[in-house]
Each structure stands twice: as structure tokens, then as C-alpha cells.
Design a protein that fits this description.
mainly beta; nine-stranded antiparallel β-sheet; two-stranded antiparallel ribbon; about 5% helix; globular
């Protein structure tokens, strides 16, 4: 499938959406991430090898990428199910559970109407970076994507309760 933008101008940041499954694998409940976060980017973290040969020519290989996104700030708020799960995991010290999330990246600038391109990743790690703050309790966190991707589409961009992922066959 070729990447074709559905744009008439520049892509707005609210067209690149990150959802986390806060339900179960058989009954997913998608929660959008980034509420009250002004800036969040997918950091690709490429593993790069560079060699300059005896002729002075430089060759670069990208061996892999380890993408992640940090949500900071993230203020604890009513109804934020991912924050509740992360705090519960931390308090129980059940750290292995940080590695069991499904993350859905929706590319709202690719596709149209009820057919937006999306990547579902299983076995992602989501961990809090700190807990506290000044006037409110913040718990910023990092999502480390697994690269175990199922490509597909979603039927909508918003609201999260309407999101249905369909794998590409």
C-alpha cells in the first residue's frame, strides 16, 4: 500500500493519534493519549552504523528503530483509565505488567472518512517516569512500541468509544 496524504495543506498534529487499549484483547476499549499535552512526538531512536571506507566514502545503515512517545505532562484525572492502571501496577510492584499493552497509532492524514490507516502494536511497554508535581499530581509516562505491528484501518478518528480497528488482509 502506497502512502498518499489526504491533505489540502499541512498535516495538523491532531491527525496523528495514539490510543491505548485499557480493556481486554477480546473487548478492546481505546483511550486516546495526550490530553492537556502540548507537544508529543514519536521518537524513532534508530540504531545506526556508519562506516567510511578507504576511498573516503561514508556508508550508513539503519539496523532497526525503537520508537517511543513520551506523554508529559500527564496529570492524574477522573476517568483516565491508563493512569489508573499504571499507578496500580506501580503500587503492586507488578512491573512485568508494564510490558503487556496494545497501542494503536492512527494516521489521520492517510485515508478518508471511515477508512483511516492505523498500526496496532502488541506487547508494548508503558511505564511511568515519575509521580508527583507542584499543584497537581502528575505521572508522565513513556510508551515504548514493540514493532510487532498489524496494519489496518479504523473507522473514525474520534471519539475513542467509536474506534474499531480492522486488520488489512
Amino acid at each position: 500500500m502506497a502512502t498518499t496524504f489526504n491533505l489540502t495543506g499541512e498535516a495538523l498534529r491532531n491527525k496523528l493519534l495514539t490510543y491505548v487499549n485499557v480493556g481486554t484483547k477480546t473487548a478492546p476499549e481505546w483511550e486516546i493519549q495526550g490530553v492537556k499535552t502540548e507537544d508529543a512526538a514519536y521518537e524513532l531512536n534508530p540504531d545506526v552504523t556508519t562506516v567510511t571506507d578507504i576511498l573516503g566514502i561514508t556508508y550508513t545503515d539503519v539496523n532497526k528503530v525503537e520508537p517511543q512517545i513520551t506523554i508529559d505532562p500527564n496529570t492524574l484525572r477522573m476517568g483516565a483509565k491508563l493512569s489508573e492502571k499504571l499507578l496500580d501496577i506501580y503500587r503492586r510492584r507488578a512491573f512485568e505488567e508494564f510490558q503487556q499493552f496494545e497501542v494503536l497509532t492512527v494516521w489521520g492524514m492517510l485515508g478518508t472518512g471511515s477508512n483511516y490507516e492505523a498500526d496496532l502494536e502488541e506487547g508494548c511497554t508503558i511505564h511511568p517516569n515519575s509521580i508527583g508535581g507542584s499543584s497537581r499530581v502528575d505521572m508522565p509516562y513513556t510508551i515504548l512500541l514493540s514493532n510487532k505491528i498489524t496494519k489496518g484501518t479504523v473507522n473514525a478518528l474520534f471519539p475513542a468509544s467509536d474506534i474499531q480497528f480492522t486488520p488489512t488482509v
